[in-house]
Amino acid sequence: MLPLPERFVARVLSDLGETEGRALCAALDGVPPVSVRLNPAKAPQPEGPVRAGTGAASCGVGPEAACCGSGSDGAAGVRGAAAGTDALRGPEAAAVAEKPDADIPSPVPRREVQTGSASVFGANPFAAEAADADSAVGDSAGASVAAAASAPCTGAEKVPWSRWGYYLPVRPQFTFDPAFHAGTYYVQEAGSQFVDRILAPYDPTGWRVLDLCAAPGGKTTLYASLVGADGLVVANEIDRRRAQTLADNVRKWGTGNVVVTVNEPREVAAFEEWFDLVAVDAPCSGEGMFRKDGGARAEWSEGNVRACAVRQSAILCEAWRSLKPGGVLIYSTCTFSRTENEEVLEAFAGACGEELAEAAEVATDPAWGVACGRVGVFQTFRFYPHKARGEGFFAAVARKTPGAGGRMRTPKARRALFGAVTRDEVRELGRWVLRPERMRFLRLDETCYAYPEAQADAVRALSEGLSAIASGVEMGRFFKGRLKPAPALAFYAGLDRRALPAAELGAEDALRYLRRQEVGAARFAEGMNLVCAGGRALGFAKRIGGRVNNLYPDSLRILKNE
Ligand code: SAM
User: Less Cβ around it within 10 Å: N or C end of the chain?
Assistant: First the structure.
């Protein structure tokens, strides 16, 4: 790893003082923690009693004020785990299907989430994988799975500000963990998970969220979990290649409530006053990644910091247009530089004037080591790796004044994209999802899609006005009146498992499947099968006699051997 850039070190020492500055630089040469965030629609999730107002306190006011207030209430309150839809099969799934509120499990109600408890780990997805791993665990690939499956959560600790986040004691080989490929969790920086905390004062169920700089999708998947089955996340990424990765991650997450667009911020901003939350996770100089990413050190320069700030200001101004009056704005970067953080916000606040207002106060715990501050009406949060457990991160939150703005504006459709599906097709499509009555099925060319009914008109307008590369649930195509499922449907958390037989594979076969290699036919029924490992859906495969046609997408296949 290259040494830290000299001018960066000089700036840090000047900004933070000798002692703090040296401590930060030393931390940036240390070992980064590994953290993941579980998918509440697919993984067992912790539930705690509602503890509003306890266990955390408001941040101090003033530049970089240390967090203040009463201490944390760390140990109590994890009540065990509720099975996600994805874990349900057969009669259990049927029971869920009959319940009016059964769909993608909604996010847990707003509550203070407690720090680690053994009961969470007892029901963690990694442990389930380990229990299901077959006797092949002795070979090298199997051993990787076992390591990824069980070891990470032995001694894993809760990320205290995130409902679904955990620190892992060692870095497993995620590539060889089928639960990773099934979208059971996302490998995400602990600091980035703080946006969950920023939204803690709200109930974002049903919100429309714009994640303007979204790839590879860490925060997108978090927002998708937060808004629930009737909400919508527009995940935009300007870089087409990165947008493909984003789309893959969104499909695996399986919430069915995301549209992935590839547009410039100004094009998205033509959807004026559309969104309850607009998040700008801006491209930045990446100082916060210096510990993990040698490339960030190599590319850093003062000129780049200034260029990033110009770009960040431009993105923020566009983002503002698409926020509803009363809506929440989150600005974040993974850099320490005041030029890219406080100064960008100061300039932005100057341009917005009275339209910008304080958001609801975000409660934090001093034990977390997050440095809280204010820039005008913005409440700010800084993660320094020598103080908070994670990489460098900066976030700020404010709101648009409820009375501000003119009116919502939807740009004219560039083209009509969607067609209707026939009644027979609706019936067949409905067979594949748990709550067909809450979905709208539409056809795009030859492929059928499903959208949350509450958001279907919005998805149509967005898809017809922007360049959308993925949206809702891609269901598949019809052949002779039957649906040939698209790979994405296997990942959908609201898939009705009664639609087809499931082939449960052991660890070694699961990896063969994920590599698109041949798998033995013994565990497959004739025809189309859902391929599972540890009960989690990985994809589809079709058995024809003694042969199994592996339908795992080539673009997702594991290429690594060890
Ligand atoms: N939010 C993402 C997550 O949590 O996984 C990380 C986003 S990353 C920090 C910033 C993203 O902004 C990059 O994917 C980059 O391609 C994109 N970007 C770069 N230039 C941009 C621009 N001018 N407008 C919008 N996005 C841009």
Answer: C
CB-ligand 1 contact for 315 (6 Å cutoff): yes
- Which residues partner with 540 through β-bridges? 530
- Is residue 198 within 8 Å of 333, Cβ to Cβ? no
Give the residue, 167 or 142, on which the prediction is more confident: 167
Instruction: Judge residue 390's burial from the number of C-beta atoms within 10 Å of its C-beta, 0-12 exposed, 13-18 middle, 19 or more buried.
Output: buried
Q: Per residue in 529-560, pLDDT tens?
A: 999 999 999 999 999 999 999 999 999 999 98
Counts of helices then strands in the chain (DSSP H, E): 18, 27
Whether the Cβ atoms of residue 93 and residue 497 lie closer than 8 Å to each other: yes
Sequence-distant (6+) residues with CB within 8 A of 68 are 57, 58, 59, 60, 366
* β 356-357/393-400 pair status: antiparallel
Closest CA to 96 of 106, 84, 107: 84
With CA atoms as reference, report the closest residue to 433 among 102, 49, 35. Answer: 102
The model's pTM:
0.84
C-beta 218 within 6 A of ligand 1: yes
Structure confidence by residue, pLDDT tens digits, 6-57: 999 999 999 999 999 999 999 999 999 999 999 999 975 444 332 223 233 3
Among 37, 162, 198, 213, name the best residue to mutate to test ligand 1's pocket (greatest count of ligand atoms within 8 A of Cβ).
213
Query: Would you tell me how many other CB atoms lie within 10 Å of the CB of residue 33?
Result: 18
User: pLDDT tier at 153 (50, 70, 90 boundaries)?
Assistant: low
Task: Tell me which residue of 487, 506, 474 sits closest to 550, measured CA to CA.
Answer: 487
Q: Give the distance, in angstroms, between the CA of residue 209 and the centroid of all CA atoms in the same chain.
A: 13
Catalytic residues: 334
The finding on whether 311 has its CB within 6 A of some atom of ligand 1 is yes
Single-letter amino acid, residue 249: N
Residue with token string 């600790």: 157
- Delineate the domains of the chain, giving CATH numbers in brackets: 6-83+183-400 (3.40.50.150)
More confident residue, 398 or 92: 398
- CA 290 from chain centre, in angstroms, equals 23
